[in-house]
Write a structure and sequence with these properties.
Layout: H1 12-20, E1 45-55, H2 66-83, E2 87-97, H3 103-120, E3 123-131, E4 137-147, E5 162-166, H4 171-180, H5 184-187, H6 192-203, H7 212-218, E6 219-225, H8 229-240, E7 242-247, H9 255-263, H10 265-273, E8 279-284, H11 289-298, E9 303-311, E10 321-325, E11 328-329
Parallel strand pairs: 2-3, 7-10
Antiparallel strand pairs: 1-4, 2-4, 5-8, 5-9, 6-8, 7-9, 10-11
Helix pairs in contact: 2-3, 4-6, 4-10, 7-11, 9-10
Length: 341
């Protein structure tokens, strides 16, 4: 039996000219005809820089549509910027392509990048493409603006602050469970609409860019939830030397996630410990809670108070997160969050 021929693909420079150069619209990007871009923050601002890598088979499925893969790769970076109170301005793209990735995949991938660019008013500044044994391999470095001195850190949380999250928690992790087990949706009685909602939340995270202004104005600390609510809150507590209490029935779950949680406690653990939410976790002092809630509501973004931060007890381990479920302690039976290694 003869081997299936590799998809046709242009050479590197032709690919750049046809597909990537149209995404580089700023003057500093020079239509990707130079080895470097020129970029400066807006007057009175400083740059916030973040980087994420994604690999097929680890961060997305190998058969995921490239249009969605591109949106996820860029979206997770914009989520990091939003949590710092930064407004996105541009990005660099590193792309590793294996021989089985053809021009059609690249065209759809770039269409996905453009969809995110158009939505948030950013553009491609440059990057690099390489050949690799197994792809696609993606690396994006994103740049944002924040007024000088106003960046919101995750290691500045203080005892007494109230904990808030945007959107709903656990959808993506539960969507991944459905993706891995095609019969699970029927087993737990999900409607087609509920199943599709959870699958979409895993495939297409929504960076909460509209939260940036309110975070700068009111948050004492913030981060995006990429590795799971409990795990990421633990990171905030550990670096800030505080401990947290979370009332699990106050955590916002979508109707689809709630339907799964009602079937099995295991799904509650998945919801609060699984990754890929890309919602914002923020610490807000009590006197600013109402203003913070109003500011986010005005943007159309849901926000919910889920607990508070407390002084670290003597002898208590840094990063402690106390979970309460209907007035009783809730003990996680598995890992508290996604681990990269």
């Amino acid at each position: 039996m003869s081997e299936k021929p590799a998809p046709s693909r242009l050479g590197e420079f032709s690919l750049i000219e046809r597909y990537f150069a149209p995404l580089a619209t700023s003057i500093g990007a020079a239509h990707l005809q130079d080895d470097a871009a020129v970029f400066a923050p807006d007057t009175g601002c400083e740059l916030v820089v973040t980087k994420d890598m994604l690999m097929a088979g680890v961060h997305f499925f190998e058969n995921d549509p490239p249009f969605a893969v591109a949106q996820k790769a860029l979206g997770v970076n914009l989520s990091d910027l939003a949590a710092k109170g930064a407004i996105p301005k541009g990005y660099l793209l590193g792309l590793g392509l294996s021989d089985d990735i053809g021009e059609e995949w690249i065209a759809e991938f770039c269409r996905g990048l453009k969809a995110v660019q158009d939505r948030f008013g950013i553009d491609l500044l440059g990057g690099d493409t390489i050949s690799c044994p197994k792809g696609p391999l993606l690396s994006i470095t994103a740049f944002g603006n924040v007024p000088i001195g106003d960046v919101v850190r995750r290691n500045t949380a203080v005892a007494g602050a109230k904990l808030y999250v945007t959107g709903s928690i656990g959808d993506a992790a539960l969507g991944l469970k459905l993706r891995l087990d095609e019969g699970l949706a029927a087993q737990v009685g999900l409607s087609d609409a509920e199943r599709d909602f959870l699958l979409d939340r895993y495939l297409l995270p929504q960076p909460r860019v509209s939260a940036a202004d309110a975070l700068r104005d009111y948050a004492v600390a913030a981060m995006d939830i990429s590795d799971g609510l409990v795990g990421d809150l633990g990171h905030m507590c550990r670096t800030s030397k505080v401990q947290a209490r979370v009332i699990l029935e106050d955590v916002p779950y979508s109707s689809a996630a709630s339907a799964m949680i009602a079937k099995n406690r295991e799904f509650l653990e998945t919801a609060i410990s699984g990754g890929d939410d890309y919602e914002i976790l923020a610490a807000i002092m009590p006197e600013n809670c109402t203003a913070f809630e109003n500011a986010l509501t005005a943007t159309g973004l849901a926000v919910t108070q889920i607990g508070d931060l407390q002084t670290l007890d003597a002898g208590q381990e840094q990063g402690t997160v106390e979970l309460i479920w209907h007035d009783e302690p809730f003990i996680l039976r598995g890992a508290a969050g996604f681990r990269h290694f």
